[in-house]
């Protein structure tokens, strides 16, 4: 991969990789580490990518794998989600509450919600990225929405 091509891809996808990493790790520092590792792998990989979409899917898949590897690390530490939420610019308090609710979901639900709504993937693309059947992704989306509705309804009543 040429230096120019790598620079272009890094600029285009660094935010996506970081957001996916943070959605898993809930730590800015760990997400930064994973982002750096993912782009080091991209620079050294000898794979010929078929398209931009192939590159994007590869980056997300590698990011998820690196995050899982990070979870197994004995040095794994969790930081407060408020650190990241404060760094994001939310136009509305409701958006901030929704983000916190999403980040509070179990990982299997958080990842599909994040990829679908925040990154913009279709259910078929998410299934491909996660290596899961499309029906599983659809079921997780439906269950995640139901859990979010319950969580947000409870917040409203408090």
In short:
The protein is an all-alpha fold.
Uncertain ranges: 74-82
Described by the principal axes of the CA atoms, the overall outline is: globular
Structural class: mainly alpha
Largest sheet report: none
Helix-strand pattern: HHHHHHHH
CATH homologous superfamily of the largest domain? Winged helix-like DNA-binding domain superfamily/Winged helix DNA-binding domain
Number of strands: 0
Query: What does the average pLDDT come to?
Result: 83
Helix count, DSSP H or I runs of 4 or more residues: 8
Helix content, binned percent: over 70%
| CATH architecture descriptor name of the largest domain | Orthogonal Bundle
Structural summary, described in words:
Helix content is 78%, strand content 0%. It is mainly alpha-helical. The protein folds into two domains: 1-78, Rna Polymerase Sigma Factor, Chain: A; 80-158, Orthogonal Bundle (Arc Repressor Mutant, subunit A). α1 crosses α6 and α2 crosses α3 (52-72). The longest helix is centred in the C-terminal third of the chain and has 24 residues, at 134-157. Mean pLDDT is 83; it is low at 74-82.
């Amino acid at each position: 991969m040429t230096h120019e091509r790598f620079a272009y891809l890094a600029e285009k996808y660094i935010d996506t990789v970081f957001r996916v990493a943070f959605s898993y790790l809930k730590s800015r520092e760990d997400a930064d580490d994973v982002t750096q590792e993912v782009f080091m792998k991209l620079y050294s990989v000898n794979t010929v990518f078929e398209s931009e979409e192939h590159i994007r899917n590869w980056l997300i898949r590698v990011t998820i794998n690196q995050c899982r590897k990070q979870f197994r690390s004995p040095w794994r530490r969790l930081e407060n989600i408020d650190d990241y939420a404060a760094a994001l610019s939310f136009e509305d308090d409701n958006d901030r509450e929704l983000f916190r609710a999403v980040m509070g979901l179990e990982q299997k639900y958080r990842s599909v919600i994040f990829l679908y709504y925040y990154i913009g993937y279709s259910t078929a693309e998410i299934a491909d990225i996660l290596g899961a059947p499309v029906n599983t992704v659809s079921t997780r989306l439906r269950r995640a929405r139901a859990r979010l509705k319950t969580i947000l309804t409870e917040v409203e009543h408090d």
